[in-house]
Amino acid sequence: MTEVADPGTITFPLPRTCPFAPPDEYRRLREEEPVTKVDLPNEGEQMWVVARHEDVRAVLADTRFSSNSHHPAYPRLNKSDGSAPQQGRRVILNLDPPEHGESRRSVVGEFTVRRMEALRPRIQQIVDQHIDAMLAGPKPVDLVAAFALPVPSLVICELLGVPYADHSFFETRSAKMVDRATPLDERSEASDAVMGYLHGLVQSKLAEPTEDLLGRLAAQADAADPIAVADLVGMAVALLVAGHETTANMIGLGVLAFKEHPDQLAIIREDPSKISNAVEELLRYFTVADTVALRVATEDIEVNGVTIPAGEGVLPLGYAANRDPNVYPDPDAFDIERGSRQHVAFGFGPHQCIGQNLARMELQIAFETLFRRLPNLELAVPVEELSFREPSALVFGAHAIPVTW
Ligand code: HEM
Question: Which of 316, 299, 298 is nearest to 48 (CA)?
Fold first, then answer.
């Protein structure tokens, strides 16, 4: 076992000083302290971070690391305002075996490659309709508001059976839920509102099942069992929020990366079949959900020669793993032909992203169509003038991206 020298000298979450790169400190951690303890924003609180690709995958694959957000040692990356931590039922992301497996099995069949392929024509149509609207409207336009957010939001609404007419209600609240900088009471309020809204929707589907994902789940649930109903609402919240927040930010950032790297854009323009490799590289390159996969050690666990004691919090750094030069030569280069498949942008192991097949398809269709139909797409302001989410955000992204063509 290795002694960890001088623990807790840096405070997480660390800022991304450049929107196209992880915090500078990740490189040093990977090279010098691949498993180490760091400070958290609340006085006296600490967690472990793990920085190498191999070790990050080992932690994510190991169910002795719990995802239970109600554990007292579950890392708090936001500064507490002193109020009691949020209680309530847990969602799939925060369940451990055996409940996690049951929850996952109830929906995983809805997200197979085959199921997602069946959605391709409709996703293409949604993408085209939003580009039609951009072409018909004034320039410049905010790509986030006109395209990146509404496309995945409408797709997940149709898949789940959530009325898209309510999109501004849940989009504004979801954005607060994933922003740890939002004061705790406001986050709780936003989460309660989305929960309440979906509770009402689930009740109506229990009364009269519909031909959509939530309708199918409702048809199998026992309406008289409050736990089954609460589980269903929790799943609806997880899918609705994760289903649009993540992909939306990746669409915006992806456009920025292609505009910053015209040589890479030229490759997909010449050969659109390379778009799926490009999407994998974008997922690796940005790792937008870098701070999502928080864990707590349930027993003493050795990682790369260091023992993480039972009852201590851990964050495997997906973004450090995805820039590990042992796996990705010249890791900071954006190279769509490198072959980035074993990236951990969707996590790894039992909690690996359920929506990854959907996200991949949405991203592939979005970039291919956008650059084909708007060949002169340009940023309307320099990249340096864009504003990005705070380091504590659960999902990284740009607030707005003015574009013209
Ligand atoms: C680019 C888009 C996306 C990224 C980068 C992303 C990232 C992630 C990551 C890193 C995890 C693992 C969390 C952990 O280990 O604790 C995860 C889990 C999850 N994601 Fe995604 N996600 C994306 C899109 C989606 C979409 C479109 C959906 C819904 C349709 C979705 C639903 C979920 C769910 C339900 C889980 C929890 C799985 C479990 O706990 O077993 N995600 N996602």
Answer: 316
Q: For the whole model, what pTM was predicted? A: 0.95
User: Both ends of the chain: CA-CA distance in Å?
Assistant: 58
Q: Is the CB of 354 under 6 A from ligand 1?
A: yes
Is ligand 1 within 6 A of the CB of residue 250? yes
Domain boundaries, given as residue ranges, for the chain: 25-404
- Does 391 score more than 70 pLDDT? yes
Residue 119, H or E segment: helix 113-136
Asked if residue 93 has its Cβ within 6 Å of ligand 1, the reply is yes
| Ligand 1 pocket mutation pick from 170, 315, 353 by most atoms within 8 angstroms of CB | 353
pLDDT, tens digit (0-9, with 9 covering 90-100), for 190-232:
888 999 999 999 999 999 989 999 999 999 999 999 989 999 9
Reply yes or no on whether the pLDDT at 61 is more than 90. yes
**Residue pointed to by tokens 């340009």:** 378
CA atoms lying within 13 Å on the CB side of residue 366: 29
Mean pLDDT of 1-8: 48
**CATH class held by domain 25-404:** mainly alpha
pLDDT, position 402: 98
Q: Is 238 in the pocket of ligand 1 (CB under 6 A)?
A: yes
Calculate how far, in angstroms, residue 92's C-alpha sits from the geometric centre of ligand 1. 10
- The string of pLDDT tens digits covering residues 229-245 is 999 999 999 999 998 88
Asked if residue 178 has its Cβ within 6 Å of ligand 1, the reply is no
3: helix, strand or coil: coil
Nearest-CA residue for ligand 1 atom 42 is 355
Using CA atoms, how far apart are residues 300 and 270, in angstroms rounded to an integer? Answer: 52
For residue 83, pLDDT over 80 is answered with no
Token pair in block for residue 220: 């199998």
Helix, strand, or coil here: 292?
coil
- What is the reported pLDDT for 6? 54
How many whole angstroms from 222 Cα to the centroid of ligand 1?
A: 27
CA 136 to centroid of ligand 1, rounded, Å = 34
Nearest 5 degrees, angle CA 15-CA 21-CA 22? 50
Residue 238 CA: nearest ligand 1 atom is 35
Q: How far is the CA of 182 from the centre of ligand 1 (A)?
A: 21
Q: What is the pLDDT of residue 87?
A: 52
